[in-house]
TrEMBL record:
InterPro entries, sorted: CmpB_TMEM229
Organism: Erpetoichthys calabaricus
Family: Belongs to the TMEM229 family.
Name assigned to this protein: Transmembrane protein 229B
Subcellular location: Membrane
Membrane topology, record value: Multi-pass membrane protein
Upper classification of the organism: Eukaryota, Metazoa, Chordata, Craniata, Vertebrata
Presence of keyword DNA damage: no
Keywords linked to the UniProt accession: Membrane, Transmembrane, Transmembrane helix
Amino acid sequence: MAAAEPLTVLSRWYLYAIHGYFCEVMFTAAWDFVVNLNWKFPGVTSVWALFIYGTSILIVEKMYLQLKDRWHIVVRCVIYTLWTYAWEFSTGFILRQFNACPWDYSQFEYNFMGLITLEYAIPWFCASLIVEQLVIRNTLRLRFDEKAEPGAPLLPSSTANGYIKTD
């Protein structure tokens, strides 16, 4: 039996984009609840978030693969956070040229051009930790079995919990 192949770059980008999109909606819903006690939880985002998060997390994946054996996780997360600020500013600046930037941090005290804000440093750091430890590491473990048939059992009946029984 041939070994299952790792997910393609496009497949991983898609998973990262959906993850980022979902987190953005949940964050804005939670923020609106905390600030306004809005029990409707109206999370919002933009279709641009798919490209922004998918591409950003794919680049963080590349950084993770280069840095994981060289730097402590705290240092890596600081690097990811700095990357996030650079990416958020760059994409926001480009989208603003078309009046399409979905965020505006002008009301924050430590904002720069309304596109990034220092107040989000800790949330971005925590998000980068979650992205590395849960999202990227588990996505890289996923495999695609080209020969699998839809609806067919995933494991032969002689396996338990993903391991072959030896008794």
